[in-house]
Amino acid sequence: MTVTEVKGFGRTGGKKEMYRGSAYVVDFVPKVKIEAVVPDEIVHEVLEAIEKSAKTGRIGDGKIFVAPVEEAVRIRTGERGKDAI
Questions:
Q1: Arithmetic mean of pLDDT, 7-19
Q2: How many degrees, rounded to 5, is the angle at CA 77 between CA 72 and CA 80?
């Protein structure tokens, strides 16, 4: 799992900031991006755990995207597939 602090925008839009007395809109807002590679057998459990933890019911809760990982290789040992995860 990797957690990254990122900036982006969506339906929440930007936010107003003040600089030297002038207002301006910051289009990109701070967000957190979580990437996790898990075996197929537990994908639904992981999705449920993320939803349960992240859901506030307000705009900005985020989205979850599920994509296949074709191959995984642990460089140090040469392990592949599930053994590399």
A1: 71
A2: 25
